[in-house]
Amino acid sequence: MPSNPPKRREYTAALEDTRMKYTGHVDLNRFRKLADELASRDPGLTVRLRDVRDAARELREVAFEAVEVYRERAAQIGAPYLGHLEVSAVEPDEKHVDCVQFRVTRGRTELLCIAIAREPVKVRLVGPFKRGKQEGPCADAPLRGPEVVKALEDRIEQLVREASAA
Predict the structure, then answer these.
(1) At what angle are helices 45-76 and 146-163 packed, to 10 degrees?
(2) DSSP bridge partners of 103
(3) Is the model's pTM score more than 0.85?
(4) Residue 137: which of 115, 108, 120, 112 has the closest Cα?
(5) Whole-number Å distance between alpha carbons of 99 and 90
(6) Which of 40, 53, 136, 147 has its CA 20 to 30 A from that of 123?
(7) Average pLDDT over every residue of 63-91
(8) pLDDT band at residue 86 under the 50/70/90 scheme
(9) Which of the residue ranges 5-19, 20-34, 83-97 has the most confident prediction, judged by mean pLDDT?
């Protein structure tokens, strides 16, 4: 992300029939047609994405609770330095339009939890791994249920152990 993102007006000037300096007219219908074309490839994706986003939010809450309990206990026993863990918000996946994800991180070590909306819907846990290195290992689990919760708990524990190694 640029440190100085363009202001909104720079994006909307062409839409307001005022041309920006040094730019030509953009064929807006071309981009309307592109949106129509891409959306028509999988008309049920919106509904499936809503479902996997809800499931990912539930799993994110599981991860957040686990991290908070760990963090609180580490502080209680005089080891607050162990609690430097973060759980991100659920957001669109970085690689695929039909997925959402959240991350659990400590320093450069991270775990990805990716909810996949293509059939069959599922969750893919990636990591823990060091950011900038090869991602993996990967494991798939059902979108909901005790199996995915246990797999997530196991991976968070593995992340904490690896990231806390002296």
Answers:
(1) 50
(2) 112
(3) no
(4) 112
(5) 10
(6) 40
(7) 96
(8) very high
(9) 83-97
CA-wise closest residue to 109 among 81, 83, 135: 135
Per-residue model confidence as pLDDT tens digits over 122-160: 999 999 999 999 998 999 999 999 999 999 999 999 999
**DSSP 3-state percent helix, strand, coil across the chain (nearest 5):** 45, 20, 35
The closest alpha carbon to 149, from 64, 59, 55, 88, belongs to: 59
125 within 8 A of 151, measured Cβ to Cβ: yes
- Strands (E) across the chain are located at 86-87, 91-92, 99-106, 109-116, 122-130, 138-141
Cross-strand partners of 122: 116
pLDDT at 11: 53
Task: Give the whole-angstrom CA distance, residue 162 versus residue 109.
Answer: 8
Buried b (16+ CB within 10 A) or exposed e, 100-134: bbbbbbbeebbbbbbbbbeeebbbbbbbbbeeeee
